[in-house]
Amino acid sequence: MTETSYCTPLVGLDAVVLDIEATGLDSTTARIVQIGAIKVHGGVIDKYRCFNRLVNPDIPIPPSSTTIHGIADADVATAAPFKDVWPELRDFIGTSILVGHATAYDLAVLQRECQLAGIEWRPRHALDIRTLAQIAAPTLAGHSLDSLCAWLDIKIEGRHTALGDATATARAFLALLPLLRAKNVRTLAEAEAATRHAIERDAQAAGGLMATFEDAPTGKATDEPDDKVQGPLMRTDTYPYRHCVYEVMGMPPVRVSPNDTMHEVSRTLINRKVSSAFVEIGDGRHGIVTERDIMRAIASRGADALARPVADIMNTPLQSISDQAFLYRAIARMQRFGFRHLGVRNANGEIIGALTMRDLLRYRASSAIALGDEIDVANTVGELSQAWAKLPVIAKELIAEDVRAFTIANVISSELRVLTRRASQLAEARMKDAGHGAPPVPYAVLVLGSAGRGESLLAADQDNAIIFNSGEPGGPEDRWFEKLGRHLSDILDEVGVPYCKGGVMARNAAWRMSFADWKGMIESWVRRQRPKDLLNVDIFFDGIPVFGDVALGEAIWEHAYACGSQSTPFIKLLTEAARIPGGQAFTLFGGFRRDEKGRVDLKKVGLFPIITAARVLSIKYDARARSTPERFRKIAAKGAASPDAIERLLVAHETIIRSILEQQITDIADGVPPGNKVATARLDRAQRAALKAAVADVYIATDLVGEGRI
């Protein structure tokens, strides 16, 4: 069972939807006569994992109750009592989140039954769809189960049977999720917070509609599971999140021919003191042969095996990983496939090194390392959302370990790119399932903005584009990719990456074009006359291809830089736009200028000027790079800025990112949708001083894009 984190999207919950039928409506006296429950995993109802039991209440069932649920004394005469049913129900629920309609009643009755049976009760974490429906549709006339199902066009089969009502509740819960997302209620923590606010607004709402997490009372032994929702990490080895493959790989790799004998290859491995060699098959294809492969061949065939070519025992295709990937991705891939060796490829797909488990052994971390491959192998939106939900918890652990904030942002960006790649694959599958066939022409999906720069934080939304090889606007190719773009955006939104408010998504025609049309669009950008005409243009220069024909994406990015750096009017417009103040950061007395909630928009007054300056100068000096630090370093190398000025900007950049990230982590845990505004009152004196110094140094960036050189 996947552990549930407070930041798990609702669509990714492992939940048990529960309903009980009882002898009456008063939870202080009612006894259970039937329990029904059904599993919901990753946004899908598992109809094969049900719980349906009659329970002997040990008291007569009132005729008025029998009239409702149809269960009479004779029906439960031979049924087990609650104390015998509970262990099975407890195991069925496990650590899952409970979901129900008017769950306060169900939980109160369950608690009383446990007390009567002498069983220790631990408060269960539960979500009430009645309250969630009031949040999603406050103007709906009624929020009873019948009303909700009628409104959501759900047919209830077996009304007033425990399993029938549980199944209808499960269907209603899943149908409410898109409506809740529209209200910015996406995660478990956000559902908690929204429920609390709804209860506070409505004093008539039953207290405890949502049970809370509490530790079991001390001083009494219990065999109950710990129902506290756990994040995926207790303690994290942060090294794999701070270092990349190229830092530990062996290079150059040992290469052999498929016709080389095992004896020759054995000698090569011994002489080079390595445990594997890559077999060059041709056409850029590789296999791999390891010392273990040779030993197995000798064990099964005898010494004569040494005269055989390694082509007989090599494994192909060679599994590889990017040299720029973080080590946690390499560890996850090795663990998933059971490999001990990986090839390492550069941006051009060329094998440039080798990575072995021996290289990584001392860097093995907790199960959270599997994050990268969990996204890679997710087959449903629910599975994707469960993997994606681990990021805030991992970010919290890395912050606690004092890992650089920019490194954490790079990890988040890396996973957002992989998430977009996997969502693209699932979108293609949806296209085929819908009868639209395979892509009509080669294409690439690009991630733009902060994820392209490697600077995403935890409030990322969608910024993506599609470039396809050929086709006209509105033509068959464009229509195919429009549908693909819609699927892509919908999947990302469901997982927890919201639609871009500015519409920068491949589902929209402005961000979905043929290669020729993209070239034309870029050339039109450099002819723009006013800064306001450049809206969203600059983030394209941060773009990176993450799926499909990567060369196509890189070619258009290179074309953009070539055109932009050669157009003086375009650079002047970008410069003019970059020098427009983002807002006053400080008051007359030197304090932070805060909004009505006591927060400072650090993106507006801090990050945005720094990021924009780096981008503009990188275009001006044709310093082709994506990340802000790399751009500034290349600019300094060209003599366009002093190393001291650049260092101060990079320190400011790091400090501001860390402040925003820490605030986002706090907000997510509190069920507040993360943003870029920071509550400065929560900072201690040293933190405020560092943040003030960082924001004060932002002027360096705005001056750099002007006429002066700092």
UniProtKB/TrEMBL annotation:
One GO CC term on file: cytosol
Entries under Gene3D superfamilies matching the protein: CBS-domain, Ribonuclease H-like superfamily/Ribonuclease H
GO molecular function ontology, one term from the record: DNA binding
Protein origin, superkingdom: Bacteria
EC class of the enzyme, as a word: transferase
EC number from the UniProt entry: 2.7.7.7
InterPro entries (UniProt xref): CBS_dom (IPR000644), CBS_dom_sf (IPR046342), DnaQ (IPR006054), DUF294_put_nucleoTrafse_sb-bd (IPR018821), GlnD_Uridyltrans_N (IPR005105), Ribonucl_H (IPR013520), RNaseH-like_sf (IPR012337), RNaseH_sf (IPR036397)
Catalytic reactions of this protein: DNA(n) + a 2'-deoxyribonucleoside 5'-triphosphate = DNA(n+1) + diphosphate
GO biological process: DNA replication proofreading
CBS domain location: 249-306, 314-371
Stretches assigned to coiled coil: none
SUPFAM superfamilies for this protein: CBS-domain pair (SSF54631), Ribonuclease H-like (SSF53098)
Record text on subunit structure and interactions: DNA polymerase III contains a core (composed of alpha, epsilon and theta chains) that associates with a tau subunit. This core dimerizes to form the POLIII' complex. PolIII' associates with the gamma complex (composed of gamma, delta, delta', psi and chi chains) and with the beta chain to form the complete DNA polymerase III complex.
Biological function: DNA polymerase III is a complex, multichain enzyme responsible for most of the replicative synthesis in bacteria. The epsilon subunit contain the editing function and is a proofreading 3'-5' exonuclease.
Protein name in UniProt: DNA-directed DNA polymerase
Species: Candidatus Filomicrobium marinum
